[in-house]
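User: I'm writing a short methods note and want a consistent example. For Pyrroloquinoline quinone biosynthesis peptide chaperone PqqD, I'll paste the sequence; you return only the structure tokens, no commentary, since I'll be parsing the reply automatically.
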Amino acid sequence: MPDPAAPSSRPRLAAGVRLTFDTRRGIWLLLCPERIIELDGPANEILSRCDGRRSVDEIVDDLVARFVAERAVIEEDVRSMLAELAAKRLVQM
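Assistant:
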């Protein structure tokens, strides 16, 4: 089976899914049909870059430039999160 979060994939939020900031609670939310997911850690940084134009590799490069962490660690975080969300049909690759 092909890797859904392959380096050349260009992820985007699925139809009906939105990323928003709840100013009252001070947290990022992923608004999905029939559910709301509270985001923590780097999730909003990853998802805000999922615009269908940038590849997974480009998203990783951007995060490596922004945060102090090894590329391999960031790449694993990005790829595993995107694969999980793609399996739930919240992100399209």
